[in-house]
Structure formats: C-alpha cells, structure tokens
Write a structure and sequence with these properties.
Layout (H helix, E strand, L loop, with lengths): L9 H26 L4 H28 L11 H31 L4 E2 L5 E2 L7 H36 L3 H6 L3
Antiparallel strand pairs: 1-2
Length: 177
C-alpha cells in the first residue's frame, strides 16, 4: 500500500496559486468598478472574461481534486479546526463557481452581453428583467464581500499553519519541504 501524499500535485499547486492571483485581482477590480465611473467600462471588459476563466479553472480544479485527493491534515490539528478548514474550502469552491454564474446571470438580466475575447459572446443565462437584475446585482455584491472575507480568513489560516503551527500544511501547497 502506498504512503499518503504529503504535498499537493504540481497541477493542484499551479491551479491554486494562479487562481489565487486571479481571484484577488477580481475582488479588487470589482471594488474599483463601483468606485470609478471613468474606468468602469474597461474594468467590466476585464472582469467578465476573467470571471469566466476562474469558473472554468475551478471546474478543472474540482475534477483534478477528485482524481488527486489533497494530502491529509495533520493528526495534531484539533477536530474543530479541521472541520472549519473543510467547510471553508467548500465555501471557497462554491463561491468560485457561483460568483461568475451570478455575474453572467446579472449581466443577462440587465440586457448586457457577456463578450469574450476573439469576438465570442455568451448566450444569456437569465431573461432580461430589471427586477431580477437588481436582485442578482445585490447578491453578486454581497457575495463578493463574503468571498473577500473568506479569502482573508484562508490567508490567515495559511499563515497560522506556516508561522505558528509549523505543521507542514502551508508547505504542502508551496511544494517546499
């Protein structure tokens, strides 16, 4: 029988770190879109395809994770912390999928096309409806702030493992021993 893996696969690490950069960029782009009317059109043109790329990579990442389970958490980790880690990862994956779909549906409900590079345009995901647009825009904004808070908690947890517990969890995602 093989020994349990101690590190994430190279593919998992690449997906994690590239998506981390994209998600942080998306969160700040989202805030900037609300704050700047002058930059808003350019930021929206960046935000939409980047959101869909995150959705695509999240689906690839979920498939990869199913085929290549992550290394186990240390046995010394208290049960409550292990459960919180598991729940936070479920929430992160849910938001990585939900946010782009909400944004696409919101754009559709507002009558806006989701244009992608190379002249591709996505079909509407929801009917054009001002009331639905309002609800979806509110949900997208609220979940965006929740996503930001969850990302900050994830970073805090990672740093706790790296600097306080020193239990190898952080290193399993960096590839360092």
């Amino acid at each position: 029988m093989s020994e349990p893996r101690t590190h994430f696969t190279r593919t998992a690490r690449w997906l994690h770190w590239s998506m981390a950069a994209m998600i942080l960029a998306m969160l700040f782009i989202g805030v900037a879109m609300v704050a700047s009317l002058e930059l808003r059109p350019w930021l929206i043109d960046l935000h939409r395809p980047l959101g869909l790329l995150i959705l695509l990579l999240a689906l690839i990442r979920l498939r990869h994770r199913r085929r290549n389970p992550p290394p186990p958490l240390p046995a010394s980790l208290p049960t409550l912390q292990a459960r919180i880690a598991g729940a936070s990862h479920v929430a992160l994956y849910a938001l990585m999928c939900a946010m782009p779909l909400l944004g696409w549906a919101m754009s559709s409900a507002g009558g806006y096309l989701v244009a992608l590079p190379f002249g591709f345009t996505l079909p509407p995901l929801a009917p054009q409806d001002p009331a639905l647009y309002t609800v979806l825009r509110s949900a997208h904004g609220i979940l965006g702030y929740a996503f930001f808070a969850l990302v900050l908690a994830h970073i805090a947890g990672a740093l706790h493992h790296a600097w306080v517990r020193r239990d190898g969890v952080f290193e399993s995602m960096t590839g360092r021993e």
